[in-house]
């Protein structure tokens, strides 16, 4: 305020001192001293008004005031920046809980989800076409065109990774299979932010044990308990807008099965490495079998060769369609069909200490609406009602009886059989090798991007 008042006075007097004439030099000096003291008292200091040869130095007053204002602003700005930094520090990227419960979309505020493992395509006979894909601007442009689809499937993959890593730590012998499946499915539903057919589980949790290789999940009331000596295959899927992650692993407690597990993991990674644009599917099968059957496992004093289960295979995946038409064998032979750009594949392998062939066995639990089923008139009202529930909750994604119970369906056994008999719905019973043997499985979803191969479901665990 003092500085402002002094400045007004200067303007009022036209920049001149209010002492007009000093009679002599001594009086002039004394007058200047008095004037100086008077101004100091007014302004509260000697740094704001300076007296020279009878003129008040206006520029000094303005400069000093500006400096004071700038200093105040600078301090205020510093405080704001400090608060902003503290705010950022406190409100940074949220961390996942243990057990996981925060939806993946909340963990990534920018909604850009992590890429999977990036691999170059295999090169044959010094053909540089595969290598040049990574640096080709045309291929990169095609990559960018599909970014939204890739981002959706990466979200599904992150939900899968965090769910399975929780289950690997949590699962214990003595738990019922229903308890295991419900923990896994409830966790995945939270992480994927389940929303009808837009986001959720892509198919029921497979938890096939020992000689059963695939497609077993417990129905309501199943008392089966997981034992210490079991070899269990955990196979489940997540999806965003029908972009499916199909991924599986084998879990054991007894280390005597380690070689069997290692053989199948190695075979799956071999299949992933061999896969690529323009690669024939039969070539992948031959590579998988060669690695798989180079292993053997000793169980209770007896040595068993590990065999590829020849009537199980990987497959292509499309939107809302888990089996999209192409199969990836895990033995030599098979089709010479080639993989194509921007296709999605589940590369999965199964190893067995038994015959290496599976057959339908046990009570059926897995079902899926036929993707290409024509319109079929239904006479039973119960069949119509059940089909409405299937269409609303699952569409063409796989489901199980537990999920029908959860969706509110009751007394549906006859209606479900009717839909299967008419070809509207397909049944997928458990697939088993001979009793007493052990089977293992590993599986990853890959994208054949224009520039590279992305193992989108890869994690630190496998």
From TrEMBL:
Record's compositionally biased regions (Basic and acidic residues): 1-17
InterPro entries: Creatinase/aminopeptidase-like (IPR036005), Met_Aminopeptidase_Type2 (IPR050247), Pept_M24 (IPR000994), Pept_M24_MAP (IPR001714), Pept_M24A_MAP2 (IPR002468), Pept_M24A_MAP2_BS (IPR018349), WH-like_DNA-bd_sf (IPR036388), WH_DNA-bd_sf (IPR036390)
GO terms of biological process kind: proteolysis
Entry keyword annotation includes Ribonucleoprotein: no
Cellular compartments per GO CC: cytoplasm
GO molecular function: initiator methionyl aminopeptidase activity; metal ion binding; metalloaminopeptidase activity
UniProt key word Metal-binding: yes
Region described as Disordered: spans on this chain: 1-104, 124-144
Keyword terms: Aminopeptidase, Cytoplasm, Hydrolase, Metal-binding, Protease
Catalytic activity reported: Release of N-terminal amino acids, preferentially methionine, from peptides and arylamides
Cofactor: Co(2+); Zn(2+); Mn(2+); Fe(2+)
Cofactor annotation remark: Binds 2 divalent metal cations per subunit. Has a high-affinity and a low affinity metal-binding site. The true nature of the physiological cofactor is under debate. The enzyme is active with cobalt, zinc, manganese or divalent iron ions. Most likely, methionine aminopeptidases function as mononuclear Fe(2+)-metalloproteases under physiological conditions, and the catalytically relevant metal-binding site has been assigned to the histidine-containing high-affinity site.
Annotated positions binding substrate: 215, 323
PROSITE patterns in the record: MAP_2 (PS01202)
EC number(s) per entry: 3.4.11.18
Tree of life domain: Eukaryota
Family the entry assigns: Belongs to the peptidase M24A family. Methionine aminopeptidase eukaryotic type 2 subfamily.
Listed PANTHER family: METHIONINE AMINOPEPTIDASE 2 (PTHR45777)
Name used for this protein in its record: Methionine aminopeptidase 2
Lineage of producing organism: Eukaryota, Metazoa, Ecdysozoa, Arthropoda, Hexapoda
């Amino acid at each position: 305020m003092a500085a402002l008042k002094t400045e007004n006075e200067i303007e009022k007097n036209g920049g001149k001192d209010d002492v007009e004439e000093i009679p002599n030099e001594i009086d002039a000096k004394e007058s200047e001293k008095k004037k100086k003291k008077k101004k100091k008292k007014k302004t509260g200091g000697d740094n704001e008004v300076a007296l020279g040869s009878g003129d008040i130095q206006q520029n000094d007053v303005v400069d000093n005031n500006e400096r004071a204002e700038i200093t105040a602003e600078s301090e205020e700005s510093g405080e704001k920046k400090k608060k902003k930094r503290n705010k950022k520090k406190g409100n940074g990227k949220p961390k996942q809980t243990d057990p996981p419960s925060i939806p993946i979309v909340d963990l990534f505020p920018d909604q850009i989800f992590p890429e999977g493992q990036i691999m170059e395509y295999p090169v044959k006979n010094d053909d540089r076409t595969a290598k040049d894909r990574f640096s080709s601007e045309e291929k990169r442009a095609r990559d960018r065109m599909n970014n939204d689809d890739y981002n959706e499937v990466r979200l599904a993959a992150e939900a899968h990774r965090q769910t399975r890593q929780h289950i690997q730590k949590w699962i214990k012998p003595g738990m019922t299979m229903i308890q295991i499946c419900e923990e896994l499915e409830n966790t995945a539903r939270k992480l994927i932010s389940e929303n009808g057919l837009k986001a959720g589980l892509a198919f029921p949790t497979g938890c096939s044990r020992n000689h059963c290789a695939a497609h077993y999940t417990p129905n309501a009331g199943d008392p089966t308990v997981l034992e210490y000596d079991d070899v269990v295959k955990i196979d489940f899927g997540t999806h965003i807008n029908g972009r499916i992650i199909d991924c599986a692993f084998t879990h054991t407690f007894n280390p005597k099965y380690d070689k069997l597990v290692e053989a199948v993991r190695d075979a799956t990674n071999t299949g992933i490495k061999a896969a690529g644009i323009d690669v024939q599917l039969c070539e992948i099968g031959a590579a998988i079998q060669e690695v798989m059957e180079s292993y053997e496992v000793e169980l209770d004093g007896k040595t068993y060769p590990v065999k590829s289960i020849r009537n199980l295979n990987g497959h292509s995946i499309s939107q809302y369609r888990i089996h999209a038409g192409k199969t990836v064998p895990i033995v030599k032979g098979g089709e010479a069909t080639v993989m194509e750009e921007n296709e999605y594949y589940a590369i999965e392998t199964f190893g067995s200490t038994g015959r290496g062939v599976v057959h339908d066995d046990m009570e059926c639990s897995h079902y899926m609406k036929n993707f290409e089923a024509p319109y079929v008139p239904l006479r039973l009202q119960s069949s119509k009602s059940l089909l409405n529930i299937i269409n609303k909750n699952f569409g063409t994604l796989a489901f199980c009886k537990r999920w029908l119970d959860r969706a509110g369906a009751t007394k549906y056994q006859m209606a479900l059989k009717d839909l299967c008999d008419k070809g509207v719905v397909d049944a997928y019973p458990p697939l088993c090798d001979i009793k007493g043997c052990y089977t293992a499985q590993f599986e990853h979803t890959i994208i054949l991007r224009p520039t590279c191969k992305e193992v989108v479901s890869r994690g630190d665990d496998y």
